[in-house]
């Protein structure tokens, strides 16, 4: 559904009395996207601050049933995990790295920190 309203108001631009008419309406192409009943609308996935081998974050699933599973995968790192969605639609993500290898290697040069990804990121 799309709706357009160009009603004038005293405290809007244009105001009730102007010397031009704001026709309004849709002036560009519009795409309507059909979404499933439950869908991911926000997420945050990042490296755990104190460990280069741990990924953490959260995923918010709109209209998800509590207890539903959400899966997160970063294929370039071979990292895959899942979490149960809580009653507010949010699932917390935490995946410890495998073995002793870090997901990102850090090296120090000239007092500046630089990062070098292991795979898939430039």
Plain-language structure description:
The protein has 122 residues and is mainly beta. It has a domain of 79 residues: Immunoglobulin-like, CATH 2.60.40. Helix content is 0%, strand content 40%. The protein contains no helices and seven strands. The strands form three sheets. A three-stranded antiparallel sheet has the order 1-2-5, with no helix packed on it. A hairpin with a 6-residue loop joins strand 1 and strand 2. The relative contact order is 0.16. The C terminus is likely disordered.
Strand content of the residues, in percent?
35-45%
Estimated radius of gyration: 24 Å
The number of distinct β-strands equals 7
> Remind me, CATH topology of the domain at 39-117?
Immunoglobulin-like
Helix coverage percent of residues? Answer: under 10%
Could you spell the SSE succession in H and E letters? EEEEEEE
Q: What CATH architecture label of the domain at 39-117 applies?
A: Sandwich
pLDDT average, as an integer? 78
In terms of per-residue confidence, which ranges show pLDDT below 50 for 5 or more consecutive residues? 117-122
What's the total helix number? 0
Distance between the termini: 40 Å
Strand order of the largest sheet: 1-2-5
């Amino acid at each position: 559904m799309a709706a357009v309203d160009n009603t004038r108001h005293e405290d809007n631009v244009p105001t009730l009395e102007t010397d031009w008419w704001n026709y309004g309406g849709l002036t560009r192409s519009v795409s309507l996207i059909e979404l499933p009943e439950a869908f991911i609308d926000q997420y945050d996935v990042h490296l755990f601050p104190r460990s280069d081998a741990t990924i953490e974050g959260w995923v918010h699933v709109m209209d998800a049933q509590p207890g539903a599973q959400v899966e997160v995968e970063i294929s370039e790192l071979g990292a895959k995990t899942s979490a149960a969605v809580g009653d507010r639609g949010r699932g917390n993500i935490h995946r410890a790295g495998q073995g002793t290898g870090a997901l990102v290697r850090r090296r120090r040069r000239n007092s500046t920190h630089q990062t070098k990804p292991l795979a898939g990121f430039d």
